[in-house]
Design goal:
This protein is α/β, with parallel strands linked by helices. The chain has one domain. It has ten helices and five strands; from the N terminus they run E-H-H-E-H-E-H-E-H-H-H-H-H-E-H. The chain has a five-stranded mixed beta sheet, sandwiched between helices. Helix 8 (165-178) packs across helix 10 (198-207). It comes from Subsaximicrobium wynnwilliamsii. This is RloB domain-containing protein. Pfam families: RloB.
């Protein structure tokens, strides 16, 4: 008589677990492209990075959703090692409340913020600028016209920008430095004429490898 056997369930153990909540498809596609890129796919596979665009993707909605997910993860005894939310200025209300709620959360929820929109970070892959664009469409039009890039929102953005990744990171750091004095004097980043700290999250994710 042959003895039956059951296949044991394979449990994947991740070195880190993180949550990234995005306002729009563009941001979601960019960071999904980052963690699934061919060069680092195997290394990123050891990190559980959840990239989500929730139903309420207003700035405050994103932060509140992050807080709910933090509680759920703790209840399941599977807490997150890092939590980021990504949103832009682009006419949103309650941005100060979103920043304050994130700051006072335990653990602190880190914010990636762009003004006027995520496309300002895209532009930094081509030039250094603190040009105060009013609308997101103005940024897209500027990129397409000046650099002859067939850029469309929510396109395969990470691959499009990959060859200029280092320029984007360097120029992102440069932008933050341009506003260093204003921030040090107490001005909030959402009160600045232009801003992007997307590069901080990009560099953080690469640092996990």
């Amino acid at each position: 008589m042959k003895r039956g056997f059951r296949k044991s369930r394979v449990t994947i153990k991740f070195s880190r677990r993180g949550l990234i909540l995005c306002e729009g498809e563009t941001e979601e596609n960019y960071f999904t492209g980052l963690v699934t890129q061919e060069k680092y796919r195997r290394k990123f596979s050891s990190i559980d990075v959840q990239i989500v665009k929730p139903k309420d993707h207003s700035p405050l909605g994103l932060v509140n959703e992050a807080k709910l997910k933090i509680k759920e993860a703790k209840r399941e005894k599977n807490p997150y090692d890092f939590i980021w939310v990504i949103f832009d200025r682009d006419g949103h209300a309650k941005i100060p409340e979103a920043f304050e709620t994130a700051r006072t959360s335990t653990p602190e929820i880190k914010i990636v913020y762009t003004k006027p929109c995520f496309e300002f970070y895209v532009l930094l892959h081509f030039e250094k600028t603190t040009k105060p664009f009013t609308k997101c469409d103005d940024v897209i039009s500027y990129i397409n016209k000046k650099y002859q890039v067939d850029y469309k929102k929510a396109s395969n953005l990470f691959d499009l920008l990959l060859t200029q990744k280092e320029t984007g990171l360097s120029n992102g750091d440069w932008v933050v430095n341009q506003f260093e004095d204003e921030i040090a004097s107490g001005k909030k980043i959402y009160e600045l004429s232009a801003f992007s700290n997307v590069h901080v999250l990009v560099e953080y994710l690469y640092s996990l490898l």
